[in-house]
């Protein structure tokens, strides 16, 4: 971050929102990449494009009252951050988790803007959610919460204005309840949510998209560097939507996935994790990952999710949450011979971890590039809904693969163009930034 313009904007942002640590972290990461673009294109600074980009177009915060199974009235907070609509309707997931706050949703919304631009589909960026956690709640409680949440959110979304989807804590069940209430309130069937069930407008391949997309991206990146997944040991954190399908595809591509986790701990299975057993535990029963070690005698369970990075592996794929991989974790990975870190989660590595990983010569892909497959297939779901058509799994999967390979190549080539050969963080940030900046420039001061 050499430019005076960027330094000034960052100082101002930090003074205004000192408590928004995750948001400041995400902004700093983008700012550290875009100096060369601002030098080459003074018109961006002249139109204060960056100053406008770091201010969300709109944020709504609302009360979500609902009744639990004991008859008590609970109150949660709901949010939607409509960050940037320069290239399309706001698009991005909803996160339901206790720690959700404005800092986390602004970081996610901000990153989503660049990620969505990288997909090459016409989608702006947004994010939302609540500090409600569905874990341990009955289906009825989750439905009551979702119906109340949508009763307010409905005022701000639509197929051509803002299209939410899932994220942590929001999967097919939650999207179903949210969509049912949306339809009831508006009297319309349309594509204003993605990640829907296959019986009511969902796209084949959306469930798999983020994890499969991460592996397609990684496969292209590995190939460029004379490597592949074949016979490689892979550690994948998390055991949710992204982690499960990353594990499934990595295995199909010849890798052995030897460890997975949840927020309580991790399982290590030297013979290779059986993905169907994980699916049965996590998707089927919504249970804890330690159950895997009860069912598979060769596996060990270890308390504490951070320990997963001490398992020696060839490749690490963080697929759980932000800042889950810090400098000590990166050091342990490197010491144990890890050759690459490929992010499925959003901002899972701390800045200190990223600089160590990159300076040690490992391959490294930032989440906003390598996890874009989920939102890309959400974009394909929007297209199918608008046309009232369903594409086959093969059609969607083929388009996903093409999109992920293009994101990889675009990030790689953009990095090289700006003198940052091999640095996918700079490449992805610059490529996403330029697309959004040009759209904003052409649309005038708005
Ligand atoms: P899920 O809710 O399906 O799964 C989340 C997984 O991560 C669970 O195993 C959860 O464990 C674990 N986890 C969550 N928080 C923590 C924490 N603080 N520490 C350790 N483990 C944690 O979410 P997704 O798989 O959908 O999302 C995972 C990541 O991928 C997030 O960063 C999300 O933003 C990102 N992402 C998701 C996309 C999607 O399409 N779903 C698309 C692109 C990115 P537990 O069961 O204990 O809660
Ligand atoms: O972080 C993400 O890209 C997502 N949670 C998916 C968003 C979407 O609209 O499918």
Description of the structure:
Among the domains are: 133 residues, Rossmann fold; 153 residues, 3-Layer(aba) Sandwich (Rossmann fold). Helix content is 48%, strand content 15%. It contains 18 helices and 12 strands. It has a 7-stranded mixed sheet, sandwiched between helices. It has a 5-stranded mixed sheet with strand order 1-2-4-3-5, sandwiched between helices. β7 and β8 form a beta hairpin. The protein starts with a helix and ends with a helix. Bound molecules: NADPH dihydro-nicotinamide-adenine-dinucleotide phosphate (NDP) and (2Z)-2-iminopentanedioic acid. (2Z)-2-iminopentanedioic acid binds next to β3, α6 and α16.
- Major sheet description: 7 strands, mixed
Shape: globular
SSE series = HHHHHEEEHEHEHHEHEEHHEEHEHEHHHH
What would CATH call the class of the domain at 209-361?
Alpha Beta
Bound molecules: NADPH dihydro-nicotinamide-adenine-dinucleotide phosphate, (2Z)-2-iminopentanedioic acid
The CATH topology annotation of the domain at 209-361 reads as Rossmann fold
Strand content: 15-25%
- Structural category is alpha/beta
Q: What is the multimeric organization of the chains shown?
A: single chain
Low-confidence stretches: none
Q: What CATH architecture of the domain at 209-361 do you see?
A: 3-Layer(aba) Sandwich
Q: Give me the Rg, rounded.
A: 21 Å
Q: Tell me roughly what share of residues is in helical segments.
A: 40-55%
- Number of DSSP strand runs: 12
How is the largest sheet built, in terms of strand order?
A: 9-8-7-6-10-11-12
Mean pLDDT over the full residue set: 98
- CATH H-level homologous superfamily name of the domain at 209-361: NAD(P)-binding Rossmann-like Domain
End-to-end span in angstroms?
26 Å
Please count the helical segments.
Answer: 18
């Amino acid at each position: 971050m050499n430019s005076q313009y960027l330094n000034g904007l960052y100082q101002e942002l930090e003074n205004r929102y000192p408590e928004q640590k995750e948001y400041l972290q995400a902004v700093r990461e983008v700012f550290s990449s875009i100096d060369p673009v601002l030098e080459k294109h003074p018109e961006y600074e002249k139109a204060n494009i960056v100053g406008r980009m770091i201010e969300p177009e709109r944020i709504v915060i609302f009360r979500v009252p609902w009744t639990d199974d004991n008859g008590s009235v609970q109150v949660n907070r709901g949010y939607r951050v409509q960050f940037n609509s320069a290239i399309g309707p706001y698009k991005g997931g909803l996160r339901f988790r206790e720690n959700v706050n404005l800092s986390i949703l602004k970081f996610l919304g901000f990153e989503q803007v660049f990620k969505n631009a990288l997909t090459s589909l016409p989608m702006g960026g947004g994010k939302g959610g609540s500090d409600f956690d569905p874990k341990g709640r009955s289906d009825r409680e989750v439905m009551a919460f979702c119906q109340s949440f949508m009763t307010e959110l409905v005022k701000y979304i639509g197929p051509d204005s803002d299209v939410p989807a899932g994220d942590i804590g929001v999967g097919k069940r939650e999207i179903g309840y949210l969509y049912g209430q949306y339809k009831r309130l508006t009297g319309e069937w349309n594509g204003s949510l993605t990640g829907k069930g296959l019986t009511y407008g969902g796209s084949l391949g959306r469930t798999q998209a983020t994890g499969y997309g991460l592996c397609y991206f990684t496969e292209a990146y590995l190939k460029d560097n004379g490597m592949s997944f074949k016979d490689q040991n892979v550690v994948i954190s998390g055991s949710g939507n992204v982690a499960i399908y990353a594990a499934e595809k990595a295995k199909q591509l010849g890798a052995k996935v030897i460890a997975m986790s949840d927020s309580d701990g991790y399982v290590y299975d030297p013979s290779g994790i059986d993905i169907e057993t994980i699916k049965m535990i996590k998707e089927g029963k919504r249970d804890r990952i330690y159950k895997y070690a009860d069912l598979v005698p060769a596996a060990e369970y270890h308390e504490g999710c951070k320990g997963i990075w001490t398992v020696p592996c060839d490749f690490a794929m963080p697929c759980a949450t932000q800042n889950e991989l810090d400098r000590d974790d990166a050091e342990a990975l490197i010491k144990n011979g890890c050759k690459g870190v490929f992010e499925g989660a959003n901002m899972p590595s701390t800045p200190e971890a990223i600089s160590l990983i990159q300076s040690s010569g490992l391959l490294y892909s930032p989440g906003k590039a390598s996890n874009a497959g989920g939102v890309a297939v959400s974009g394909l779901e929007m297209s199918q809904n608008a046309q009232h058509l369903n594409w086959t799994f093969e059609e969607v999967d083929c388009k996903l693969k093409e999109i992920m390979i293009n994101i990889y190549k675009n990030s790689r080539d953009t990095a090289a163009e700006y003198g940052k050969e091999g640095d996918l963080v700079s490449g992805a940030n610059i490529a996403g930034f330029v697309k959004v900046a040009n759209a904003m420039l052409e649309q005038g001061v708005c």
